[in-house]
């Protein structure tokens, strides 16, 4: 009896350290919480005797249809989810927005639209009044009007091919992608193929506004998103520069907020690729200072993106970053790796540079001093659980480092990274996975 008492006290003491343990629920909230936990326990119980039935132990692609049919997921969809603090500009909006873009006039494609995951290269797209003369990546193929291709194979077939092409989703993900470099190659190929389509000004504005509509439909009411600011163009071959592109974001955000005053706001983090030479990087820093000066409330700060394992380490850039004006906040991707003693050390640089948040922070568990500083400085870790699984950092969500971050009340936020490219909702699927897989079975 005394042992049982001590065990119960120990368990309470441990639970009191968990994320959200200090929240006090109203009577109505307690009733809802009991219902939510009943649904959670029913679903988790399926995996005790048959691990193949455990949602948190399977790849997201393998159980996506099952998640979509789960009453708990439908409840999470209806719940307010606050803001998305980690997402990338051209992978927030759903594939339906990409399909819509292909219905615009004057769109050309070079190469076949296919749903084969090993298609290499992916087709090229470009808007133009006349047939493009620009060579594609492999210098082969013929430019054809998408409208003509649609007529030849039918709108329904073309739309479905686009849906399948611009996603990493596959029913057999463990065999479809051999390793982390393999899945990243396909991932980046989608961005490259989509860019000339989405950077056509009418599509650029339509896609961004449509993305905001989809966020609100998923009960997300705030967005901080990252972007590279690639050149935007129109049919007159005008090229819009970074400041003009940010102005488009500002204008579309203002238009959306007027129509939907319940949405709390939008901010932008300038986040170019970490694969660059020193001169290009200097240009990045000059640009972010210029943008912050012109759009002080819209520009949240600066980051670097791209596969961390293969990109340049932060040590290459630290001295330049230290010279930036203190009004430029940092929100660095760091620790998006399985390595220890290599690129994971970007976490140390991010901390010492004064980052306000850390994107992913997957490897932070391997750095006790980093974890101490994250807590001491109250640096929020932007968790993207589905992204981490799809991009081959973790297979079983129960083994995600966030399980520890949740259990010891680290400052975290659940985000979605590039939800369109894994056929996920803007945020609800990541919330579901976090609740069912990252959090303890006891966590409510």
Automatic annotation (TrEMBL):
GO cellular component, one term: extracellular space
Entry EC number(s): 3.5.4.4
Tree of life domain: Eukaryota
The protein's enzyme class: hydrolase
Pfam family, one: A_deaminase_N
Main location: secreted
GO-annotated molecular function: adenosine deaminase activity; metal ion binding
Adenosine/AMP deaminase N-terminal domain mapped to chain residues: 2-76
Reactions catalysed: adenosine + H2O + H(+) = inosine + NH4(+)
SUPFAM superfamilies linked to this entry: Metallo-dependent hydrolases
Cofactor section: Zn(2+)
Protein family membership: Belongs to the metallo-dependent hydrolases superfamily. Adenosine and AMP deaminases family. ADGF subfamily.
Record PANTHER family: ADENOSINE DEAMINASE, ADENOSINE DEAMINASE 2
Protein name: Adenosine deaminase
UniProt KW keywords: Hydrolase, Metal-binding, Secreted, Signal
GO BP terms in the entry: adenosine catabolic process; inosine biosynthetic process
Compartments, as annotated in UniProt: Secreted
């Amino acid at each position: 009896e005394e042992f049982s008492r001590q065990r119960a006290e120990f368990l309470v003491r441990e639970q009191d350290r968990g994320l959200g343990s200090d929240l006090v629920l109203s009577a109505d909230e307690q009733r809802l919480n009991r219902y939510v936990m009943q649904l959670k326990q029913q679903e988790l119980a399926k995996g005790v005797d048959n691990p193949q039935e455990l949602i948190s132990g399977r790849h997201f692609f393998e159980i996506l249809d099952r998640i979509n049919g789960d009453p708990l997921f439908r409840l999470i969809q209806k719940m307010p989810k606050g803001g998305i603090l980690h997402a990338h500009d051209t992978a927030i909006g759903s594939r339906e927005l990409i399909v819509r873009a292909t219905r615009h006039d004057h769109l050309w494609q070079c190469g076949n639209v296919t749903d084969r995951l090993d298609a290499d290269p992916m087709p090229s797209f470009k808007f133009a009044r006349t047939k493009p003369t620009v060579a594609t990546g492999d210098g082969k193929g013929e430019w054809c009007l998408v409208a003509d291709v649609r007529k030849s194979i039918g709108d329904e077939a073309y739309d479905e091919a686009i849906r399948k092409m611009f996603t990493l989703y596959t029913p057999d993900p463990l065999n479809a992608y051999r390793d982390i470099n393999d899945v990243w190659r396909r991932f980046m190929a989608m961005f490259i193929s989509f860019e000339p389509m989405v950077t056509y000004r009418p599509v650029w504005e339509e896609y961004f506004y449509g993305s905001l509509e989809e966020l609100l439909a998923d009960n997300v009411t705030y967005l901080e998103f990252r972007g590279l600011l690639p050149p935007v163009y129109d049919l007159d071959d005008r090229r819009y520069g970074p400041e003009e592109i940010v102005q488009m974001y500002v204008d579309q955000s203002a238009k959306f907020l007027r129509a939907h005053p319940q949405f709390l706001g939008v901010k932008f983090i300038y986040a170019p690729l970490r694969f660059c030479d020193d001169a290009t990087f200097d240009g990045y820093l000059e640009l972010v200072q210029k943008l912050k000066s012109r759009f002080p409330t819209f520009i949240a700060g600066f980051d670097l993106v791209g596969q961390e394992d293969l990109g340049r380490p932060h040590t290459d850039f630290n001295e330049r970053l230290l010279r930036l004006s203190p009004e430029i906040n940092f929100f660095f991707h760091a620790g998006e790796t399985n390595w220890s003693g290599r690129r994971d050390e970007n976490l140390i640089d991010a901390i010492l540079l004064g980052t306000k948040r850390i994107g992913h922070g997957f490897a932070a568990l391997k750095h006790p001093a980093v974890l101490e500083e994250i807590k001491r400085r109250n640096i929020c870790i932007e968790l993207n659980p589905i992204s981490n699984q799809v991009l081959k950092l973790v297979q079983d969500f129960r083994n995600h480092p966030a399980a520890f971050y949740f259990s010891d009340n680290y400052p975290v936020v659940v985000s979605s990274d590039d939800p369109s490219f894994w056929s996920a909702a803007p945020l609800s699927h990541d919330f579901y996975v976090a609740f069912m897989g990252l959090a303890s079975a006891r966590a409510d």
